[in-house]
Amino acid sequence: MEHISEQEFILNHNKVYGTVLRYERQARKLSLEELSSGILSHTALDNVEKGRAQWTKVAGDTLMLRMGILPEYFESLASGTELERWRLREDICLLVPARPDEAIARIAEYRKTYENRDPLEEQFLLKAEVILMLVRQRRNDECSSRERKPQSRLPSHIGHTDAALVLNTARRAVECTVREGWEANLNALCLSPGELDTILLFCVALFLAGHHAKAWKLWQAVWNYPSEHLWKERAVTLILPQAAILGIWLALASKQSGGPPSVSVQMISIREMAAHGREALELLRRNSCHCYVLPLLESLCGLSEDLFPDPEYPGQLRSFLEMFREIYAWFDYPGYRIWQGISVDNTRDAGITLKMLRIFYCKSRENAVYDGNELVVTPRQLEKIERGIHKPSYQNYGRLAKQYGKYAEWNMPLLETDSVEILEQRQLISTLIECNDWEAAESEIRKFRSTVNPAFPRVRQELLFFDAALKWKKENALQESLDMMLAALHCTAPDFQGREMKWWVFQREEIMIASNIGMLYRQLGDLPTAEKWFKAILASLEENTKRTGIYNYGYDVAAENYDNYLGDIGCFHTAMKMIEKTIQKDLLFYRINSIQNLFYRIAWNLYMIFAEKPEEHASLRLKWKKSFRISESMADFMFDSHLTAFLKERESKYLS
Question: Is the pTM of this model over 0.85?
Answer without folding.
Answer: yes
